[in-house]
Amino acid sequence: MEKRSIIGDRFGRLVVINELPGGKAVCQCDCGKIHYVLRYNLLSGGTKSCGCLKSERAIMRDRMRYAQLEEGQRTNLAMLVCNHPVRGNPTGVKGVCKVRGKYRAYITYNRERHDLGLFKRLEDAVKARKDAEAAYYADILQRIKDREIWV
Ligand SMILES: [Zn+2]
After folding, report:
1. How far is the CA of 9 from the centre of ligand 1 (A)?
2. Residue 68 Cα, ligand 1 centroid: separation in angstroms?
């Protein structure tokens, strides 16, 4: 029984340009690559590209994951730089709390609390906190900005 030729047929991104003995087919992928694949895999729908489709999907998946990660970071950052008073914090300034008549400034970075010092005046503590925000987060802010182009 003569097998039907599949030369010229399209399977996903692959177009068959030749058939070889042993059930193999030579395909031209839309991306330009020549790909050897078993005829069976084409007919069963198991193979639809030279592999570029798979890697493109992987890239898209990575981008999605990355976008979610960035979104999470942005949210944390928004919380961090917002100046809403924290409940139970009598100074009303995020990152500054009152300790025995003085003001302690701190910043949380990578889930670790970093002490920025003890200050007599509230405004000094606030300044220390602001400086620390700039130092700790300028780098992250810049990275988010740069990547927003394609996220
Ligand atoms: Zn391809």
Report:
1. 16
2. 28
Q: What is the pLDDT of residue 50?
A: 94
**Distance between Cα 115 and ligand 1 center (Å):** 54
The span from the CA of 74 to the CA of 130, in Å, is 18
Distance 30 CA to ligand 1 centre (A): 6
pTM over 0.70: no
Q: Which long-range contacts (CB under 8 A, 24 or more apart) does 141-147 make?
A: 141/77, 144/70, 144/73, 144/74, 144/77, 147/66, 147/70
Number of Cα atoms under 13 Å in the Cβ half of residue 24: 8
- Give the least confident one: 19-33, 44-58, 80-94, 95-109: 80-94
DSSP helix/strand/coil, 111:
coil
Distance 23 CA to ligand 1 centre (A): 21
Task: State how far the Cα of 121 lies from the Cα of 126, in Å rounded to an integer.
Answer: 9
- The CA 3 to ligand 1 mean position distance, Å, reads 26
Distance 51 CA to ligand 1 centre (A): 6
Which of these, 52, 46, 39, lies nearest to 9 by C-alpha position? Answer: 39
